[in-house]
Design a protein that fits this description.
This protein is mainly alpha-helical and 221 residues long. It is 61% helix and 0% strand.
């Protein structure tokens, strides 16, 4: 029995000694570096992940809003509050695009009128409102309607613009519900400018000039 105990103790001592030798020897072995191909593959995957988060063209420090269609006229990736991403579907984005185009057209007419009134005066205008301009015209019309006056200029403006909104609502609802009609398209092109090869260019010019006009008429007022 004592002999067998001594034999097992010596075998265990040898095993522990060999393990310690191998452990210490491995400390002097140079580490295996990753291959150039593996490093390149890792870098490629990282770059592709970064490129998937496309940045906004107008605000490069922010991600581009994913809900906006890049093919729409005047697209600049400008939606810092990501309003378009909170909308239920693409129909709401088209509705906002319709509203922007309408405001652009009204602003361009208003800015043109604000400039023309300093150059040309239509016959009979001075006899009705005198020399007032811009917002003073609004005040003048309101004063003419009160105190027993028989003028109803502001009521006529409300009537005709209201009828226009009613008549165009059918087309706008079609766009809102996912129809094929493009936002702002009423088929009004009496001079034939909307040729296929030039239509996209005119759409871009309209939206850019309209945005400038909205800022401009705000400053004029």
């Amino acid at each position: 029995l004592p002999c067998s105990v001594r034999t097992s103790s010596s075998n265990m001592f040898r095993a522990v000694l060999l393990a310690a030798v191998f452990a210490s020897a491995s400390a002097f072995v140079a580490p295996v570096l990753p291959s150039t191909r593996a490093v390149a593959r890792t870098n490629t995957n990282a770059m592709s992940g970064m490129s998937m988060q496309k940045k906004s063209a107008s605000m490069p420090w922010l991600d581009a809003p994913p809900a906006l269609d890049e093919s729409m006229a005047g697209y600049a990736g400008f939606d810092p509050l990501w309003v378009s991403s909170f909308l239920p579907d693409a129909g709401y984005v088209k509705f906002l695009q319709e509203a922007e185009i309408k405001h652009c057209r009204v602003a361009m007419l208003a800015a043109t009128g604000a400039i023309v009134q300093d150059i040309f005066t239509f016959p009979g205008v001075k006899s009705v409102i005198g020399d007032v301009k811009m917002t003073s015209v609004h005040d003048k019309f309101l004063s003419m309607e009160g105190k027993g006056g028989n003028q109803a200029a502001m009521h006529q403006i409300l009537l005709w613009t209201g009828l226009f909104e009613i008549f165009t609502a059918v087309a706008i609802v079609q766009t809102f519900n996912g129809g094929s009609r493009a936002p702002g398209d009423f088929g009004f092109d009496p001079l034939g400018f909307g040729k296929p090869n030039a239509l996209e260019t005119y759409k871009l010019k309209e939206i850019k000039n309209g945005r400038l006009a909205m800022i401009g008429i705000g400053g004029m007022v």
